[in-house]
Amino acid sequence: MSGAEIDYATVFQNLPGMVALLTPDLVYADVNAEFLRMAGRRREEVVGRYLFDVFPDNPDDPSATGMRNLECSLRRVLATGERDTMALQRYDVQVPGRPGYWEERYWSPVNVPLFDQDGKVVLLVHRVEEVTELIRARRAAVDGRAEVLEAELYRRAGELQQINERLRQAHSKEREVAVALQEAMLPAPRKLGRHRAAVRYRPATGGLNVCGDWYDLVDLVGGDRVAVSVGDVVGHGLEAACVMGQLRSALTAASRVAEGPAQALDVLGRYAHVVDGAESATAVTAFVDFYRHTVTYSSAGHPPPALLHPDGRVEFLDRATDPPLDARPDPRPRPQAVTAFDDGATLVLYTDGLVERRREDIDIGLRRLARSLSGNRELEPEELADAVLGELLPPDGATDDTALVVVRL
């Protein structure tokens, strides 16, 4: 049977176990038949309603934490785009037709994200296994030993959840420090002589996702010239931010004395070999000569810069691409290429967070970027940078850092 012939709605309704689909606002989009049967609810009492209006905490139990724990898990999945398997939960349920009567119930939930083609979380799969009968059976065992074991199991599950929450808070604090360090080391927006430029840095959404993206703009000696660079360090948190600072500073120094961008990346690549955490780091740098109206560029495993011509045509500068900084044992020089531009053109450098999406070819992201640049070509650099980020990044935040430099030539 081909995939086109499968009735997935019927498959969903007949899935074993309780399965629900939730919107990002935590409203029930759909539930399967087993969910309704186990919950003792009719479809119209669930679908289209807010999760915690249907299943609130027991108001007579001041120690109830089921609703809070479940909401934290679902919000975490939305923020990180990663599955979350929860610890055993006690979550009492009001008995249908008996207002004020709550039944003690135990559940084992798993929450999983569903993505659209842009990598945005559009639905949450909320699968629940009820283990109430197992808990009751253990309680009824001889000598009460099983009841003691069950209580110990439940206590340890609660402790594990508290430990996980403290770890998440610690990672969140590390992320705040890493973002602050990263932003402190990146240069502030400024004019390049009479030329206008805009820079943007957007950290990833989620406590564990801050990475090592960076950008730089350097005035070069001799004439009306400037070096524009962006780079990306693999990894997360403080370590990535520190490595980013080392590589950016090294490239700044190399660019001021190098004959061209390829030589600057050669120097940076040799430096990256001795920096722990610089493995697989990428960078691209472009030397702009405003007098000669040329852009000379070289890339070390990085997405290609975009040159937006005054007529709206977008040229991706991809004729001088080489492996990442530390992945090139060959001693020969890195390649570089030159392209010409007219007054009013715009050079755009960026990191992969702007164009890459899960399970999508990067060429799709590059075409999306080209459309955005062409459609907003009349805007000044500051407004153009905001327009591109607004059109290309998911409204609820990206799962990868994004650095962006826009220079009007």
* Gyration radius, rounded: 27 Å
Q: Helicity range of the residues?
A: 25-40%
Give the total of beta strands: 19
- How far is it from the N-terminal to the C-terminal residue, by CA? 57 Å
Number of H- or I-type helical stretches: 10
Order of helices and strands: HEEHHHEEEEEEHHEEEHHEEEEEEEHHE
Strand content: 15-25%
Mean pLDDT: 82
Lay out the secondary structure.
Layout (H helix, E strand, L loop, with lengths): L7 H6 L4 E5 L5 E4 L1 H7 L11 H4 L11 H15 L3 E2 L3 E2 L2 E2 L7 E2 L2 E10 L5 E10 L1 H8 L5 H41 L11 E6 L9 E8 L5 E9 L3 H21 L3 H12 L9 E8 L4 E7 L5 E3 L5 E3 L4 E2 L14 E4 L5 E5 L11 H14 L5 H12 L9 E7 L1
Parallel strand pairs: 13-16
Antiparallel strand pairs: 1-2, 1-8, 3-7, 4-7, 5-6, 7-8, 9-19, 10-11, 11-12, 12-13, 13-17, 14-15, 14-18, 18-19
Helix pairs in contact: 5-6, 6-7, 7-8, 9-10
Textual characterization of the structure:
The chain is α+β, with helices and mostly antiparallel strands and 409 residues long. Helices cover 34% and strands 24% of the residues. The chain has helices at 8-13, 33-39, 51-54, 66-80, 132-139, 145-185, 237-257, 261-272, 362-375, 381-392, and strands at 18-22, 28-31, 84-85, 89-90, 93-94, 102-103, 106-115, 121-130, 197-202, 212-219, 225-233, 282-289, 294-300, 306-308, 314-316, 321-322, 337-340, 346-350, 402-408. The strands form four sheets. Strands 1, 2, 3, 4, 7 and 8 form a six-stranded antiparallel beta sheet that branches. Strands 10, 11, 12, 13, 16 and 17 form a six-stranded mixed beta sheet that branches. A five-stranded antiparallel beta sheet has the order 9-19-18-14-15, with helices on one face. Helix 5 packs across helix 6 (145-185) and helix 7 crosses helix 8. It is elongated and about 85 Å long. The mean pLDDT is 82.
